[in-house]
Design a protein that fits this description.
This protein is α/β, with parallel strands linked by helices. The chain is built from twelve helices and ten strands. The structure holds guanosine-5'-monophosphate (2 copies), manganese (II) ion (MN) and sodium ion. Sodium ion binds next to strand 6. This is PAS domain S-box-containing protein/diguanylate cyclase (GGDEF) domain-containing protein.
Length: about 250
């Protein structure tokens, strides 16, 4: 309740920030883009993890406001980086099941892109398996609309949720993200290795890219590259940082 009370108005008071974590090509380690991760710095509560406040924001009906701020801020930042001459990067952001289901979500994305004059292919929307499995027909239409605009779609935390492979192949997903809990035990856990390899093969067979999250060591990065993973993300490749510091992840100008 205290948390909910502090959360009301937090967006307008400027208490939210996005941090950007680099995503890199598994072979060259070149930057391919960033994942935007929301951070709430509450004057009363200090830093509160999105894992804690997003579910409360959903219960309180505050996600339309927070989600609109996120996509607007992502597009504003993309424009700033484009204006600085940076090219060929995407920015991924997370969308909960509730946000994806909301009528008006697609318009919010379209508006933010147009206000900031950002190419739609810059945006990569990270969805979870469970968010695809509720109201499948409606979600299918929503994803088709997003695809028509030109945004990319990723399936986050892959392997941890409940999803039907039969549906998976029908959705226009561009990228599977191997959940960090399967990366944690690499390269030593045979079970994690088997799961990671299976997801890589599945993604490629379905003509999707595959990335691994939570990569914390050089050994894990090398192991995943050998498995055929396309992209890597995790502390080994770079920690989430506020935009001014995250800019340093771009390659130096030629
Ligand atoms: O960065 P961190 O580990 O604290 O993120 C915790 C969780 O919060 C992750 O599941 C992440 O997907 C989610 N999250 C981070 N930013 C956002 C956001 O902008 N919107 C939504 N819906 N979830 C987010
Ligand atoms: O659910 P989602 O995948 O969107 O959330 C990613 C979460 O993982 C974020 O909270 C981010 O801060 C965190 N994260 C990113 N890289 C690493 C890592 O290398 N190790 C750990 N433990 N967490 C990470
Ligand atoms: Mn994510
Ligand atoms: Na994830």
């Amino acid at each position: 309740l205290t948390l909910g009370r502090s959360l009301r108005g937090a967006v307008q008071r400027g208490e939210m920030e996005l941090h950007y974590q680099p995503q890199r090509d598994a072979t060259s380690l070149a930057l391919t883009g960033f994942e935007a991760l929301i951070r709430w710095i509450s004057p009363e509560l200090g830093r509160v993890s999105p894992a804690r406040f997003i579910p409360i924001a959903e219960t309180l009906g505050m996600m339309p406001e927070i989600g609109e701020w996120v996509v607007g801020e992502v597009c504003r930042q993309a424009r700033e980086w484009l204006d600085q001459g940076h090219r060929d990067f995407e920015i991924a952001f997370n969308v909960s099941a509730q946000e994806l289901q909301r009528p008006g979500f697609v318009d919010q994305v379209r508006d933010a892109l147009s206000v900031h004059e950002v190419p739609a292919s810059t945006l990569n929307i990270e969805l979870t398996e469970s968010s695809l499995m509720e109201n499948v027909d409606r979600v299918r239409r929503t994803l088709a609309e997003l695809r028509a605009i030109g945004t990319r779609l990723s399936l986050d935390d892959f392997g941890t949720g409940y999803s039907s492979l039969a549906y998976l192949k029908q959705f226009p997903i561009d990228k599977l993200k191997i959940d960090q809990r399967f990366v944690r035990g690499l390269p030593y856990s045979d079970d994690d290795a088997a799961i990671a390899q299976t997801i890589v093969v599945l993604a490629h067979q379905l003509r999707m890219r595959v990335s691994a999250e939570g990569v914390e060591t050089g050994e894990q990065a090398e192991f995943l590259r050998k498995l055929g993973c396309d992209e890597l993300q995790g502390y080994y490749l770079g920690r989430p940082a506020a935009a001014p510091s995250a800019s340093a992840f771009f390659p130096a100008a030629q």
